[in-house]
Amino acid sequence: MSERPPGEPAARDPVDYPIAQKIPREVLDAEAERLTELRQAPIHRRAGGYARLAGPGFMAAALTLGAGTLTSSMLSGATFGYRTLWLIWLSCGLGLFMMAAMARFTCKGGFRIIQVQNRRHSWLIGSLMTALVGTAAVAVIFNFGQVALGTHLIESLAPFAGFSFPAEYNWIVYVAVTSWLILSYGRRGGTGTRLVEWVMKAGIAIMIAAFGAVLLVVGVDWGAAARGTFVPWLPGGGEGLDLFIASSAAAVGVMDWVFFNYAGLGRGWGRNHESLARFDVIAGLFLPFVLVNFLVIGVFAATLFPQGITPESAPELAAALMPLLGPTWSQILFYVGFLAVPITTTVGMSLAGAMAIHEAFGWEPDTSSWRWKISALLPQIAFLAAWNARPVWLVIAIAAFLSLANNVVGWSMYLLLNDRKVLGADRSKSYLWNLGILLQVTLLNGIAITYVFNRLGWW
Amino acid sequence: MGTAGSSGSALQRLLKRRIGPWSGRVWGLVMNLAANAVTLWGVSSLLRTGGGWAWIVIGGMATVACMAVLAVPDRTGDPAE
Fold it and tell me: What residues of chain A lie within 8 A of the CB of B29, using their CB?
């Protein structure tokens, strides 16, 4: 990075993504100026400055830390105690190589990933597998789980305030709050985007504070936790392999990749932002993901595991935990922290879905248009989950498509990172980076293969 | 990594070369998928019948080889490298 002569304005790349074009030029220039200053600052000041400017990584973490991930961690803690803690940092850590590729595409490439996939690898890989199946359909289907959990938690919290508020009615509050946040994104000259990012960061902070406080109440077996963090252990037989493959490959997936690329473009990121983007991936995505999962596993390892209680769903797990938490405030705290999980995931997934739908059909995203609003609010059809309605056949179909499509999307990303025609001199020149991505691709292959073997009765 | 670097140019040419519909890199990904399938077939046999170690070893070695080759980046043709 060359230094600018004094007084010369911070150089910015042309901003192509319509959501970023709504941000006033002087705001983008001031951010570029700040980044240049931070690059020369001592490391602690740089980290603080980057943390304030970061956003898409935190949003990706909030999106990933959903009902499914947290239920899986609760079950792991209740069933295996602390012994699977190592899987959390390993699985998310493996995903960092691919996220670094997304940072490269966004900052140095400056392109929209799905458009480039369509051009280089056909619409089947870009529009269909990445945008419609891997992102938009997932946003709609997985939101059923978020709404079911969110409305259940509101219903569970209401009695603490002295009234009853069943899921059949409180879904209106859930959908209203999340819809307001979703529709704020990209509005009011970039302040809407900042507001959503701030809420996502606050959501993660609430999860950490709430689960951390609950963990302090129930106590930690530090020795067992340290062993679980650093000594790999898996249950024997097929169960262990299933757990390893699912955890390793599912932590950071296609939706996170796509979302990070488009959210970065939506912030007007350019060539000067790659260091910030990498910081955002580590401090915004990796650390919160690992910390929240550690805390949740810790709570259930300290409470349900010693008693041999292993309920199967998130509401059952939470209900089983309540009598073991002791004081009322710790129960409320757990529910509040837990409520931040589905809310932030609904918002993140809906935005990712809207971006993906627009790319799949070649529409320019205009956040004030009806087309954007309808695309973004499409996942809210999941309000039906308040009555336990779940489109089971659709869930099965999407799971099948996802299992078989994710690895091919991973191949596409690896190929683009090594494609001279796409990135020119900015393509990957690192053996280690490629190897990290190939490890994740191989794990995604493993999921596709075990899915087929399972269907054929061989697994 | 040293190995990759010393035989890099031959491998880089192979990975860039178009063979039929695809480049060497894409064929490498297809071979990696096949090797992964062989390994998991061995694991599935091991879980069902107690045998299948040969498949695991062959598939595992092929997977490692594919990844080692595919990880070689294209460093050719850029000035000042």
Answer: 411, 414-415, 441
Instruction: Give the angle subtended at the CA of A129 by the CAs of A128 and A130, to the nearest 5°.
Output: 100
Q: Within 13 Å, how many C-alpha atoms sit on residue A297's CB side?
A: 29
Contact A453 B44 (CB under 8 A): yes
| In a domain? residue B24 | yes
Inspect the interface and report whether the beta carbons of A407 and B33 lie closer than 8 Å. Answer: yes
Q: Note whether residue B35 is domain-resident.
A: yes
Asked if B41 is an interface residue toward chain A (Cβ–Cβ < 8 A), one would say yes
The reply to whether B59 falls in a domain is: yes
- CB burial of residue A426 (10 Å; 0-12, 13-18, 19+): middle
Query: Which of A429, A445, A459 is closest, CB to CB, to B73?
Result: A429
Q: What is the rounded CA–CA span in Å between residue B33 and residue A404?
A: 12
ipTM over 0.85: yes
Q: Which structural domain, as residue segments, surrounds residue B40?
A: 2-70
User: How many domains does chain B contain in total?
Assistant: 1
Q: Residue A329 carries which side chain, given as an amino acid letter?
A: W
CB atoms A431 and B71 under 8 Å:
yes
Backbone angles phi, psi at A402, to 5 degrees: -60, -45
Contact with chain A for residue B58, Cβ under 8 A: no
Q: What residues of A are in the B interface, CB distance below 8 Å?
A: 237-238, 241, 407, 411, 414-415, 418, 420, 425, 427-435, 438-439, 441-442, 445-446, 449-450, 453, 458-459
Q: What is the pLDDT of residues A32-63, one digit of tens each?
A: 888 888 888 888 888 888 888 888 898 899 88
Task: Match domain A18-31+52-390 to its CATH number in 3.90.1150.10, 3.90.1720.10, 3.40.50.11540, 1.10.4160.10.
Answer: 1.10.4160.10
Q: Inspect the interface and report whether the beta carbons of B73 and A237 lie closer than 8 Å.
A: no
Q: Residue B77 domain-assigned?
A: no
3-state helix, strand, coil in chain A (%, to 5): 80, 0, 20
Which of A425, A430, A445 lies nearest to residue B78, judging by beta carbons? A425
Residue of A150, A190, A185 lying closest to A380 (CA atoms): A150
| Long-range contacts, stretch B19-26, CB < 8 angstroms, 24+ apart | B25/A415, B25/A418, B25/B70, B26/A411, B26/A415
Are the Cβ atoms of A431 and B74 closer than 8 angstroms?
A: no
Mutate to test the interface with B, among A438, A444, A452, A454 (most CBs of B within 10 A): A438
Give yes or no for B77 touching A (CB within 8 A). Answer: yes
B23 - beta bridge partners? B18
Please report, rounded to a whole number, the percentage of residues in chain A having pLDDT higher than 90: 44
pLDDT at A437: 96
In which band, very low, low, confident or very high, does the pLDDT at A448 lie, cut at 50, 70 and 90?
confident
For residue A19, pLDDT over 70 is answered with yes
